[in-house]
Amino acid sequence: xxxxxxxxxxxxxxxxxxxxxxxxxxxxxxxxxxxxxxxxxxxxxxxxxxxxxxxxxxxxxxxxxxxxxxxxxxxxxxxxxxxxxxxxxxxxxxxxxxxxxxxxxxxxxxxxxxxxxxxxxxxxxxxxxxxxxxxxxxxxxxxxxxxxxxxxxxxxxxxxxxxxxxxxxxxxxxxxxxxxxxxxxxxxxxxxxxxxxxxxxxxxxxxxxxxxxxxxxxxxxxxxxxxxxxxxxxxxxxxxxxxxxxxxxxxxxxxxxxxxxxxxxxxxxxxxxxxxxxxxxxxxxxxxxxxxxxxxxxxxxxxxxxxxxxxxxxxxxxxxxxxxxxxxxxxxxxxxxxxxxxxxxxxxxxxxxxxxxxxxxxxxxxxxxxxxxxxxxxxxxxxxxxxxxxxxxxxxxxxxxxxxxxxxxxxxxxxxxxxxxxxxxxxxxxxxxxx
Length: 435
Ligand code: PXG
What we know:
The protein is of the alpha/beta class. It folds into two domains: 2-57 and 338-433, Aspartate Aminotransferase, domain 1 (Alpha-Beta Complex), CATH 3.90.1150.10; 61-335, 3-Layer(aba) Sandwich (Aspartate Aminotransferase, domain 2). It is 37% helix and 16% strand. The chain is built from 16 helices and 15 strands. The chain has helices at residues 15-20, 46-49, 58-70, 82-94, 108-125, 146-151, 155-158, 177-180, 196-204, 230-241, 262-266, 293-299, 319-335, 341-353, 384-395, 417-433; strands spanning 27-29, 32-34, 40-43, 99-105, 133-137, 168-171, 209-214, 244-248, 272-275, 287-292, 361-367, 370-375, 398-399, 401-403, 406-409. The strands form three sheets. The protein has a seven-stranded mixed beta sheet with strand order 4-10-9-8-7-5-6, sandwiched between helices. A four-stranded mixed beta sheet has the order 1-2-3-13. Strands 11-12-15-14 form a four-stranded antiparallel beta sheet, with helices on one face. It starts with 14 loop residues before the first helix and ends with a helix. The mean pLDDT is 97. The site of 3-[O-phosphonopyridoxyl]--amino-benzoic acid (PXG) has 19 residues, from helix 2, helix 5 and strand 14.
């Protein structure tokens, strides 16, 4: 087996460890994967935060198959196909009021690059070309392209790649275990951390700042929640200084927090939302930037035969992705999945917080159907204890994610109580075993 795995350089993977003891998936349905040997694996992370309706949902499978035979590809530049308009219209309808223009990409990373470019270009076409600076947040994750790692704040994703984009700065992250450890839902303390944006305005001047990008809930850097009042304050400071606010909803979009978008859950409307993952239930790559009409409209000037925004991808609004997206939204609607995290949140919170008191559990965080369980690192070996828990859960038939020493849970939104209990039971045993 080992030599046949040589050619594939795996992404975000411990390649040598993996190839010594591969973890392969061969089939999926509903809440489960199966390995090539037929072992059943309960999916505690919706694949990678994307399979929100569960695996291999019939409407989505059929839509993709039918689309492949009907119209496999349509050029998206100066041409289009009907499903692109239909999907954009439905996404706009799910979005906060006023956010009704949709630009398609193929991933979350591309959605981030698109939003950052849109923000800088928006100010330029309005005659404020000095607004070029982009502000991210420490511990933010915005994908892996150069813009995204520049505004991102995960050191491992940045330190290998040189000087990154110029003209980027970061506000402080909101993780404060000293005050907020074991908070159920949004933490009480830390709204004032939004004022860190005022520090950067004082340093750089608002006239140089195009946009601020944050995840309403950070996933990849360990399930970090917005303190109560924090996002509201960030919005107010952006408004005061004419700075655009971008919510990166690549993982919080499509029902994770109990509404289509976290913007609705937290009652704060950004200028742009970046989305991906759950947009097609993970079945075909797709991302999108959803923006306020005012942003789009600023570009719609000059001679009508000229391109207004010099940006796009060969596979923007790919027919297979649009077909999958439409069938995904239909599946979400049929089963009420975009709000199902609301009634399930209490059960989920009780289950994950039941792990408090286990050895090395130093914090537990939750919101909707997202959970984070932070472990004390093994001395001198960061990330190893959580990775060992991940391996043990895999042996026991449960798929979880770890980032650093935090275990992340983000199950498909179709999950039942008994499956939540099974995941938490297996995670708890694995934590004890690695004490
Ligand atoms: N923004 C956010 C907030 C994300 O979570 C991306 C952008 C990039 O999306 P693409 O489609 O380019 O990967 C993401 C991706 C994890 C994990 O384990 C999360 C992501 C990717 C890989 C791992 O938490 N999110």
